[in-house]
C-alpha cells in the first residue's frame, strides 16, 4: 500500500478478505466507491480442500475461490493489503490501525473477521481436521456418504449432530467421550435408536490412522472402534475484538457472542456493518457472500444519501 492509500480517506475499509469481505468489496468497487480490503489471510475453511453447496462453485478449492475473488475486485480498482487490523477508533470517520504500521481512514467499515474453530483436545483431531475429521455434513457429507461415521460428543447438544449425519450414513457411532449417558434425555435416546445410531460411553483417548487415513477411534480403556470418518463440534470463537472496541452491542448465544445487526448487517455502531461468520457461527460460504453483498449495497445508499443531505443542508 502506497502513501496515497494511507493518507487519503477511503469510502469503505473492509476488514477481512474471505467470502463476505470480498463480496462486499466487489459490490462497493462496482459502485465506484474508494474501497480497501485488509486481509490477514486466515480463512476459516483453509483446512478443507473443497467447498460445497455454492451454486456454480460446488467442489471448488477455497484457496482458488478466494484467488478468483481477489482478481475480480482488482478489476474495479479495489485495493487489497495483506495485514492485520490491530485497532480501530471512531469519530467523524474511522481510523484503522495496521499491524505492519501506519493507519488508514474510512467513512464506513465492513467487519468480516469471521471466527476461529477451537477443536476438541483429542490426539489426532487437529491433524486430520478438514480431511476425515469433519464438522459439517452439508459441507462434506456427500463426499463421505455411506462410510462408517463416528461422532465425538462435546456436550449433550452433540446428539443433534449425531442424528443429522445419519442422513448421509446408516453406520453411525456416537462416542459420548466426557458426556455422561444420564445427560441425554429419553427423547434423545429414542431418536438415536430410531436413527440406528450406536451410543458408546467412555472417554476417547486418540484417533487411529494408517497410511494417513483415519481407521479408528480408540477409547481410554484400550478398545478401538473402526471408523473412517469422525464428526466433531468445534467451539466457535467469534473474532469480535474490533467491534467490541467500537462499542457494538453483542448478543450472547450458546455458540458465542455475536454483534446485534439489522437485516443488512448494520451493527449498533453507526457506519459499521458486519458480515459472514462475524455475525454467526453457521454462515456458510454462500451465506457469507450474500451477507457481504447486502452490507455493501446498504453502504452505497447510506453514503449517497449522506452526501446529498449534506449538499441540501449546505
TrEMBL record:
InterPro entries: FAD/NAD-bd_sf (IPR036188), FAD/NAD-binding_dom (IPR023753), Ferredoxin-NADP_redctase_2 (IPR050097). It comes from the Bacteria. Keywords: Flavoprotein, Oxidoreductase. Residues 10-290 form the FAD/NAD(P)-binding domain. It catalyses: [thioredoxin]-dithiol + NADP(+) = [thioredoxin]-disulfide + NADPH + H(+). It holds the Pfam family Pyr_redox_2. This is NAD(P)/FAD-dependent oxidoreductase. It comes from Streptomyces marokkonensis.
